[in-house]
Design goal:
This protein is of the alpha+beta class. It has 4 helices and 3 strands; from the N terminus they run βααββαα.
């Protein structure tokens, strides 16, 4: 992955955006420390979609584990948990 400083990115933003659009992410640094990555919209959407799918799977598994732990607890008992 190409790495550029913020100053370099500011001076060549158009070219860097073309690189990212072509599927070549660009890391942006400040004082040598990575602070951002430029990537294509398609790659961003792909990553976002997989994160949503992973969270959905995790959430469903968590719900399954939680409901298994409440066997034998009635709805009335659960309702009383919220009472002062």
């Amino acid at each position: 992955m190409k790495t550029v400083s913020i100053a370099q990115a500011r001076d060549s933003l158009t070219e860097l955006l073309y690189e990212a659009e072509d599927g070549r992410p660009v890391q942006v640094t400040r004082r040598g420390k990575a602070v951002a990555v430029l990537l294509s919209e398609a790659e961003y959407e792909r990553l976002l979609g997989s994160a949503r799918a992973d969270f959905a799977a995790w959430s469903q598994a968590w719900r399954g584990r939680q409901s298994a732990g409440f066997e034998g607890v009635t709805a009335e008992e659960v309702a009383r948990w919220g009472e002062p």
